[in-house]
Amino acid sequence: MTLVGRATQLEALDAAVATAAGGRLAAVVLHGEPGIGKTSMMRELERRAAAAGLLVCAGQATEFEQDVPFATYAEALRPLLHDGATEEAAAVRRALDGHGLYAGPGSSVDRARIYSRVRGLLDAAHTPGVALLLDDLHWADEPSLELTEYLIRKPPRRPALVAVAFRTGQPPSGVVKAIAHAGPAATHISLSHLGPDDVDALLPELPRHRRALILRASGGNPLYLQVLSRLRGDTLAALVDNHDLDTSESQVLTGLVTDIADLDERVRRVAYAAAVAGDHAPLDLVAYVAELPVDEVIEGADELHRRGLMDVDAAQLRFRHPLVRAAAHELAGPAWRVTAHARAAVHLRANHGPRQVVAHHAERSAQPGDEASAEILIEAGLAFTYGAPAQAARWLGAALRLLPDGHPLGGRRPTVLLQYARALGLGGDLERSQEVLRELARAGEPVRTEAAAFRAVVARLLGHIDDAAALLTAQLHAELPPYAEAKLHVELAAIGALREDGHATARHAERALTLLDADRPALAAAARALRAFGALYGGDVAAARGHAAAATELVDATTNAALRPHVELIGPLAWVHLQLGDVVAAARQLDRAADVVESGRSSAVPYLLVVRAALETRLGRLAAAVELAEEAVAAARRMGSVEMLAMAEAVSLRPLLWTTGPASAITVADRLAATERPRSRMWWRVAQVSLAVARMAAGEPETCLGIVSGPEAAWPAGPPTAVPRDVLRAVALARSGDLDAAERYARRAGALAGAADLVYETGWAGYARAYVAARARRFDEAAARAETAATHLAAARTPVEEALARHLAGLAYARGGRAAHARVAFGQAEEAYEACGATWLRAVLDRDRAAAPGRVKRDAGTPATGAAALSAREREIAELVRAGLTNQEIASRLFLSRRTVESHLSRVFAKLGVRSRTAMAGRFTSDFPDE
C-alpha cells in the first residue's frame, strides 16, 4: 500500500536498500513524534529490502522489556537462529534466553564476545546481504543499544542495511552518534506532519470541509487522522474548539492513551489535571487542580514526557498533541472533571487569570443557582460576542441556564438575552437566534428595536427577504435615536441591493448617511458600500467609483473592534471593487475582513467566502475558487442557511464549467432552479448568467437565449450584468445564424462597456464582435478583434478570459489560412489554461487544434486524433491506468500530486472521446493494438 505524503522519504529508503544490495553498508535513522508513521515506514522498508534479496531481521523494542537484556534482538535474530548448529548461533541463543552470557546490567561478562558472535551470525547468513531493522528503539534495553552501536561502528563484512526508528524527543544517543560517524553511508529521515493534499489523498471519500476539519483536529498526524475520520462532525468541531466531547464517541479517543491507565495513581492525576488545566498549563495550576505538591507534579510530568505524552516548557506542561490531551480529559471521568474544573476556576480567579480561561472552567463546573459563575460567564460572553460568537453563545446560554427564568440579572436580563441571540446568530445558529429574538418583541426600548433589527438580519440570512423588509419597515414608525434609525436604513439598503432595487438601495443608504455622526465610521462605511453597490447596478459607474472610494477610506480608518459588528458588509464593498475591475482593492478588503473575523464560526463567513471565490475565479485561480465555494457551502450548511448555500453554489458555476465542463455546472444550476434559490434576485442573476455561459458551452444556443431574454426592465441596467447579457445574446444568435441581430448586440455591449470605461467588460464585448465576425467568415477581422479583446482581458487580470480570446484568435487564424499565427495563439491559450487549471477548456482547445485546417500543431505536423494526440505524460498516465493503478498510485509513482494526475486524465478522456477508465483502456488498446 502506498504511504501518503512520503514519496521523498521512500525514495531515500530505496537508495539505502540499493546501497546495501550493491555490497556496501547503509545506515538509516528514522524518527518522528508518536503516531507519525515510523512503524509503517519500517514495514515498507522491510518489504523493499526483502524484494531486493536481503535477509530481513526485524525487531521492535517495547516499554515492558526495558530491563530484559537483548530483548530487542530476540525476534530480530530469529531468522539467523533457525538451528543451533554453529557455535555462534548457540552462544547467541543462550544470551537471548538469559543463560549465563549476560546476566544483567551489573554483570562483568565480556560483552565484546557476544557482540562479535552476533556480527559473525550476520556474516554467515546465506544471502547476498542482511537488513537489520529495529523499531521503537527509544524503549530498547541497554545491551541492545550497545549491540546496535557496535554493529554500526564495526559492520559485518557481508553487505548490510541497519535501520533504527525512535521518537524524536527520545533519541538513543550512542546509536545516533554511531550512525553519524558512518558518513555518506548514513541516511537521516524525519517524518513530518501531513498536509492538505496528503489528507485529500488519504481520505478521498470524505467531503472537503470534513477533511479540513480532520486535518485541524489531528495536526496532520497520520494515526490521529485515521482515528478522527471515524468521528462525527460535531465531535470534530468540539475537539477543534476545545469543547467537551459526546461520551458516545469518547472511547475512540481514550483508546489512544490506554497506557495512562497503567501508570502510578499520582502520575495519572498529573495527566488528568494537566488535561483539565489546558494547553501550556502552569505547574502551580496543575498542582492546585491535582491537589499534589509541585515537586510530585514535576516527577509525574517527567514520567509522562518519557512516555512521549507530554513536554515541559518554561514551567508549563503541554501534551504532545491536542488529541492526547482530549483523550486524557475523557479518561479522568465526569465527576472528577467537574470538581477539577471548579478548582481551576478558583485558582485562576484568585490569580487574575484571563477572562476567557476562567469562563471556560466556570462553564464546566458551575451548579444551578451559582450567581458568581453566572456573572463570570456573562462578562466573558458580552466581551467575546463579535470576536468568538459561537463561544460567547455557549457562555451566555450557560449563564442563563444557571439562574431561574425570573432572575433579573441586576436588571440586565433583556440585554443579556439580546446579546445571547446576537451571539447565536453571528455564530451560525440562526434558528435558535430567531427563537430568542421573538421573546424580546415585548421588551422595552432600546432592546426591542435592536432585537427587531437583528431579527431582520437573521431572516435575510435565511432567505426570508420579504419578512426581513417588513420587520425593518415596521420599526421605522417608532421614535428612534438617529443611530438606531440609521442601522435600520442600512439593513433596508442591503435588502434593496439583494432585490436589485437600485432606487431603494440608494434612498436608504443616503438616509443612513444623513443620520450618522462622524463617530460611527463603520456603519457609515457600510452605507457607502451599499450606495456604491446600488449605483453600479443602476448604471452610474462614476458614482459607484466615488462611493466605493469613500467607503474604503472609512473602512481603512476604522479599527477592527469597531468594524467587527458590520464585517459582513465588507462583502458588497469588495464585490463592487471586483466589478469595477479593481481586483487589488477587492482582495485587500477581503483580507481585512478575514483579520476582523476572528472566529470561523461567524455568520459573515459564508458570504465573505462567496465573494472571495468570485475574486479567485476572476484571477484564474480555479481550484482555489472551487474550494472556497465548497467551504462556503459547508459553512452555510452548519448555519442552516439554505440561501447562503445557494449563493455559494451560484458562484461556483463558472469555475466548475471551466474545470470539469458544462454537465457539472448545469447540474448545480438545475438544482438551484428546482429549489427556487437563491431568493435574492441579485445572486440569482449571477447564477443565470453563469448558467447561460454553460448552456452556450454545451452547444445549446437557444437555451442560452431563453435564459438571457426577457424585458429590458427586468434586468439591471449596470454594465456588470448588461454587458455579459448582450455578449451572450450576440454569441448565441451568431451560433444560431442570425448574424445581423448578433452584430447589434455585440456593438451595444461594446458601447456600454466603453461608456463605463470598464476594461473587463470591454474585453468581453470585443470577444463578442470577434465571434460574430468569425461566424460571418471574416477571419482576418475576427482574429484582430480577438487579439484586441485578449489585450483588454489581460489588462483586467483575467487570465482564463484572456485565454478564451486567444483560443478564438487561433481558430480565426487557422480558418483564415494563417497557420503560424494560429500556432502562437493556440500556444498562448494552452499555457494559460494549464496555469489556471482550466482542464475542460484545455481539452476543448486540443480538439479544436486537432480539427483546425492547416499545419497548426506545435510541431507543425499533421493533426493527430485519438491516442496519437496524447502528450508523452498523458500517454504515460493512460498506460498506468490501463495497468490497473489508481490515481493516487500513479501520483506516487510519477511524483505528481493526485490533482495533477486527475487533470491529465481529464484531457486523456476528452482526446479519446470517452467518459470512464474502462472505456479509456479499451480505446487506448484499440488505437495501439501491438502494445
UniProtKB/TrEMBL annotation:
- Which keywords accompany this UniProt record? ATP-binding, Nucleotide-binding
Biological-process GO terms, alphabetical: regulation of DNA-templated transcription
GO cellular component annotations, sorted alphabetically? cytoplasm
**What residue stretches are annotated with the HTH luxR-type domain?**
863-928
Tell me the GO molecular function terms. Answer: adenylate cyclase activity; ATP binding; DNA binding
Q: Which SUPFAM superfamilies match?
A: C-terminal effector domain of the bipartite response regulators (SSF46894), P-loop containing nucleoside triphosphate hydrolases (SSF52540), TPR-like (SSF48452)
- The name this protein carries in UniProt is HTH luxR-type domain-containing protein
- Which species is the source of this protein? Phytohabitans flavus
Lineage per the UniProt record: Bacteria, Bacillati, Actinomycetota, Actinomycetes, Micromonosporales
